[in-house]
Request: fold
Amino acid sequence: MHFHIITLFPGAFDSYLGESILKRAIEDKKIRVSFYNPRDFADNEYKRIDRPPYAGGPGMVIQAEPVIKAIAKAKSKAKSKNTKIIFLSPSGKQFTNEYAAKTAKKFSDVIIVSGRYEGIDARVKKVFKMEDISIGPFVLTGGELPAMLMIDVMARQVEGVLGNFDSREESRVASPDVYTRPEIFAYKGKKYRVPKVLLGGNHAKIEEWKSKRQGKK
Reply:
């Protein structure tokens, strides 16, 4: 799966993609992540891509043309013409595990458009077919964190990214509470124990316990 990220700050992704499971997935060529900076497509010597909004208002708006050129470049690098384009927006459709799974199954290439400042000139959405998506009912400084979140969630749906594909919590009965050794430990005079049901080896009872705990998420 190939993620194409449209962003003014590609360096913001370095630390997250350079660690743990995503780093290994990139090294193993299970996923690819490419970046396209609209500034590289600016038509002025200062690489400026923001201007004041029409009708007034605070902040600056990212111009449409550099973003359009960046998206076009990403589309030219995609393996399939059937490419998903996601436009990150606080007012968009809620991003979920189900959405991630469907997208990962249907598309080999996903373009994620990350905005900054007061946003991106809306005419970009008239040039390309894309879907407004939000990661939650809040507003962030930019789209880089949501893009990282989406890469993480969708990459988990790609077989081979996780050591065991069935280890995905969303695909099995998983308790929000987990335990490991030691069975008992003491802290400030109080003993803390692993629930007895997890020690007995009765898988039916363990699954029942997990189901009940799952309902308390």
Q: What stands out?
A: The CA atoms of residues 25 and 161 lie 5 Å apart. The radius of gyration is 22 Å.
